[in-house]
């Protein structure tokens, strides 16, 4: 399309509808904006933030439960090297999972707060 025509259509629309900054201005010949009667719903980004942080919270809570249960298994291993090693490895990997959940939650909170 010709750039001159695009410029003409855009300037005509701005003049006709009084659009500045994304809002309709009250001009006598402008089409009035219709107010939204529905209650304001949270934005999609805010909803995503709540869902992701809830997921990371549940995953972190699960990691803590696994750490406690593995600690119990570690204490009750009664010197069995195989049970001790299994419980120790479970604690190690649960701590890694907890750190990953905390880091992911921090990253999501930081990014979402920058977007919103």
Helix/strand order, N-terminal first: HEEHH
Share in helix = over 70%
| Low-confidence segments | none
Task: Tell me, briefly, the overall form.
Answer: elongated
Q: Which structural category fits the helices and strands? A: mainly alpha
* Rg over CA atoms: 28 Å
Strand content: under 5%
The chain-level mean pLDDT equals: 79
* Count of helix runs: 3
Number of domains: 2
Strand order of the largest sheet: 1-2
Distance between the termini: 35 Å
Biggest β-sheet strands, sense, barrel? 2 strands, antiparallel
Number of DSSP strand runs: 2
Could you describe the 3D structure shown?
- With 116 residues, the protein is mainly alpha-helical.
- It has 2 domains: 1-35, no CATH class; 44-115.
- Helix content is 71%, strand content 3%.
- It contains 3 helices and 2 strands, in the order αββαα.
- It has helices at 3-17, 44-75, 81-115; strands at 19-20, 23-24.
- β1 (19-20) and β2 form a beta hairpin.
- α2 runs antiparallel to α3.
- The two termini are 35 Å apart.
- The model has no long low-confidence stretch (mean pLDDT 79).
Quick gist of this model?
With 116 residues, the chain is mostly helical.
Strand and helix map with partners:
Elements: H1 3-17, E1 19-20, E2 23-24, H2 44-75, H3 81-115
Antiparallel strand pairs: 1-2
Helix pairs in contact: 2-3
What features would you highlight for this structure?
single chain; about 120 residues; mainly alpha; 2 domains; two-stranded antiparallel sheet; elongated
């Amino acid at each position: 399309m010709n750039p001159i025509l695009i410029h003409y259509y855009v300037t005509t629309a701005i003049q006709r509808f009084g659009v500045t900054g994304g809002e309709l201005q009250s001009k006598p010949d402008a089409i009035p904006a219709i107010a939204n009667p529905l209650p304001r719903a949270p934005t999609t980004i805010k909803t995503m933030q709540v869902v992701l942080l809830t997921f990371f919270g549940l995953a972190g809570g699960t990691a803590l439960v696994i750490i406690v249960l593995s600690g119990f298994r570690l204490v009750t291993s009664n010197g069995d090297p195989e049970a001790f090693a299994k419980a120790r490895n479970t604690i190690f990997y649960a701590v890694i999972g907890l750190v990953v959940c905390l880091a992911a939650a921090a990253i999501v909170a930081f990014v979402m707060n920058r977007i919103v």
